[in-house]
Structure formats: C-alpha cells, structure tokens
Amino acid sequence: MVIAGAAIAALAVEVFLVDNSIFDGGVVGVSMILSHFIPVKLGVLTVIINIPFLVIALKAIGKDFLIKAIIAMVIFSLCTYLFESIHPITEDMLLATVFGGVILGIGVGLVLRGGGCLDGTEIVGILISKRTSLSVGRVVLLINLVIYTVAGIVFGINSGLYSIIMYFLTSKVIDLVETGLEKGKAVMIVTDNGRKVADEIYTNFGRTVTFIKGEGLISKTGKDILYCVVTRAEIYSLRKLISSLDVNAFTTVSDVSEIIGDHIKKTGN
Predict the structure, then answer these.
(1) d(CA 25, CA 136)
(2) Pairwise CA distance, residues 168 & 95, whole Å
(3) Rounded CA gap, 144 and 36, in Å?
(4) 48 closest CA partner among 65, 19, 28, 23
(5) 222-231 and 184-191: which strand pairing?
(6) pLDDT tens-digit readout, 91-110
(7) Above pLDDT 70, what percent of the chain?
(8) Alpha-carbon distance values, 113 to 16, 108, 120 (Å)
(9) C-alpha dihedral over 99, 102, 103, 107, to 10 degrees?
(10) Nearest C-alpha neighbor of 100 from the set 198, 173, 202
(11) Which residue has the higher pLDDT, 217 or 136?
C-alpha cells in the first residue's frame, strides 16, 4: 500500500502538476518551487528536505513509521525520475487541477493508510491529529496555504489559486482514502417508539443503541432518544429503514472524528 501510494502520488505530480505550474504542498511543493531555480532533480530535493522531519519522526513516532516513511519517500523520488519523461496528459489548468488533486490524494491517502508518510509536513499533521480533532489532511492544508501564497507571488496568482483548489480536493480525498468508508457517523433519533426502532437497527445493522430519556417541549410527553454510531456507507440504508417504520421519528446525523472502543455489536456477542 505504501509503495503503490508513493508511485501514484509521483505520477500525479509529474503528469498533471509540474508542467502546468500547479504546486503540491509541503516538502514536495517547496522542492517543486526550488527545482525551478537550482539544477537539482525534484526527487533529490524532496529527500534532502525531508531528512529533518524524518529525525523528528524517529523521536516522536517510532522506527516502524520511520522505515515506512523512508520507503515511501525513496519510491516517490525514484518514480518522479521515471515519470518526468511522460508528456503531460492535459495542458488545461482546470483539468490538471482536478485530476491531479484527486490522484495525488489517492496516493497520499494510501501511504498514510499503510502506516507511512510521504511528506515531512504530514509528520507534523500526524502529530497534531493525535492531539486534536483535526484530520491530517486539514492540518497539512493549513501549512500549505503559506506555501501556496509564496507560489502565487513567484509564479503568478493563477498558479497559486489553482494550487489551493487542487489541495482542497487532495485533502478531502486523503481523508476519504485514509479512513475509508468505515469512518463513523453519529446518529441521534428522537421517537415515541424507541424500542421498535432500536430492535430494527440491531437486526439490520448489528448495532446496539444507547437510550436517553427526554420530554417534548410542546407535547410534554416522554420521548426516546436513541444514539448509535454507524459507518457512512450505512447512512442511506439506515435513513431508508427509519422512513419505512411506522414511527414518528426525528433524526440527526453528524461526523465522528474518532471512535475509541468497539461500536459494532453483532448478534451472539
């Protein structure tokens, strides 16, 4: 997964971004900018600038992560060298921005999901995400806004703006690939017949629910408030299930940034 992700990311950079002056963020982005002014290959610059971040990774995250990060960065560097001779697929800035951003996000997301890292700023993002509710993609995006500002000043406002759009797409794809469709969604259901709804959720999804007792402001009658966590892939089916039941229900769905513990209770457990 780490090797495949690094190769995919390198393909996105060389085939869509470099020749169209659309810049990646982080160390790769800095390397892309510097490669325009000094006669050093992009891949070599990426490895050199990443070294201090690898030292931080060793002290703060561990050897296993460091080994995977080194593998990812070396593969990325080699693949940028191999892919640099490929003619860009499109010279349309918008198409390059969209497809380059999506493919880059898939590559980086695979590397992160495999337990590695492709860029020094991702190490910073991982450290911050462990201590806050911010995802890795969002932390890296904030860091990259500074880099894109510099790119816009040096290479023109269009390059800077397209680069920002590209990384908005990339950050979303990174989060999707890294967490997958198993990312949790919190569902809260207010109903008059909580037991019926709870039994159907357990039967169809294998999830238990937490009962919270409430009271309607206007009706002054008791309400069952059900709380459960499902995956985003199950939201459509859950919504359809609740609609099919002959109950008066009010439902809200919200994102869950992290789940600690097993929220899936299958029959017989």
Answers:
(1) 13
(2) 15
(3) 19
(4) 28
(5) antiparallel
(6) 899 999 999 999 999 998 89
(7) 88
(8) 23, 9, 16
(9) 170
(10) 173
(11) 217
Q: Are the C-beta atoms of 213 and 225 separated by less than 8 Å?
A: yes
Find out whether 185 and 249 touch, Cβ atoms under 8 Å: no
Read off φ and ψ for residue 249, nearest 5 degrees.
-130, 140
pLDDT the model gives residue 96: 93
Return the number of other C-beta atoms located less than 10 Å from residue 98's C-beta.
17
- Taking each continuous run of H as one helix and of E as one strand, the counts in the chain are 10, 4
Q: Smallest Cα–Cα separation from 45: which of 29, 24, 61? A: 29
CB atoms within 10 A of CB 227: 12
Helix locations, 35-135, DSSP H: 42-60, 63-83, 93-113, 120-131
Q: Judge whether 122 and 114 are in contact, CB under 8 Å.
A: no
Q: Which residues pair with 252 in a beta bridge?
A: 188
Q: Does residue 269 sit in helix, strand or coil?
A: coil
Q: Is 184 helix (H, G, I), strand (E, B) or coil?
A: strand
Q: Give me the count of residues in the chain.
A: 269
Which residue, chain included where needed, has tokens 């990060």? Answer: 69
DSSP string computed for 219-232: T--EEEEEEEEEEG
What stretch of H or E contains 8?
helix 2-12
